[in-house]
Design goal:
By secondary structure, this protein is mostly beta strands. Helix content is 0%, strand content 52%. The strands form nine sheets. A four-stranded antiparallel beta sheet has the order 7-8-9-10, with no helix packed on it. A four-stranded antiparallel beta sheet has the order 11-12-13-14, with no helix packed on it. The protein has a four-stranded antiparallel beta sheet with strand order 18-19-20-21, with no helix packed on it. It starts with 15 loop residues before the first strand and ends in a 5-residue tail after the last strand.
Length: 332
Amino acid sequence: MLMLTLAIKAAPKEPIPIENNGAFGVADPSGKVLVPPKYASVGLFSEGIAPYSSRSEDGAVTAGFLDRKGKPIGKVVFEVTREVHQGRAAVRTGGLWGYVDAKVKVVIAAKFERAQPFADARAWVDLGSNKSAIIDPMGKVVFTLDDYMTNDPSRFSEGLLVLVTKAKSTAVAVDVTGKVVFEYPTRGANAFSQGLSCFRDANDRWGFVDKAGKVVIEPTFAFVNLFSDGLAAAEQDGRWGFIDRTGEWAVQPMFADADPFSEGLARIRVGRLYGYVDKDGRTVISPIWEDAEHASSRFHRGMAVVGTRVDGVLQRGWIDSAGQPVWVPWPQ
């Protein structure tokens, strides 16, 4: 019998951006510095590249992308660059936004006044003149959003986009073709996560609906976050805890603030300090950090960004899921 062995090649591990005294560089996932901090900014790596910007002596800022070694890719010809999502990264040139692919090839010409990342093969763009639309990965308009509030629309998630009507009294969930799946009364709403979307009622209380538009958690909370790992952070009487999919408290409200779970850990605030807890509310990383409000402070690829003050200056670094430093700019 002929036996065939298939070798599955693991996806390369992405480097991490590092920061020291306002300058940015690149390190590998173990914390080994690949490029010392010297750039004006470096974003997260995705699909092998990361957005970055440089500032010249005269203050002019240019932007481009770095490869996994931290080296610039091609010519730096953009004003602003964003992270790659689903093979597309938003870029600005000449004051307008377009998209490049993961090889930094322009696939959608710069013609939009604003542009959001792709999700579910769809992205929101500002067409100008108070008009906006949803486009596909080649830049074709799939449908327009003339009847909805679009100053800060949520992104597609789980095949649905939640939009609030201009009357601000109802919200709709539309599919990737623009078809309305359901409509419900609300003063605010957010994207779907794990099959549920949070909404705000006329009394400014928050609850959740499912993908059929059915209220599954009554709006009784002062505020809520998205579901993740089966739980959602919720606020009641000024304290935060975590509720399950029935709306019952899985972790009693005891924190000054709380974020959604990511990779089994949720960022919480106790007083003015930040730490992380597990799904049972047990402290995994003690609240010793003065800052965990960074976009990367939720765990991703086993790491998160936290900050502390050194000589009065806020410095940020990366820790692992045990709270141990991966790369930090302060002495150990």
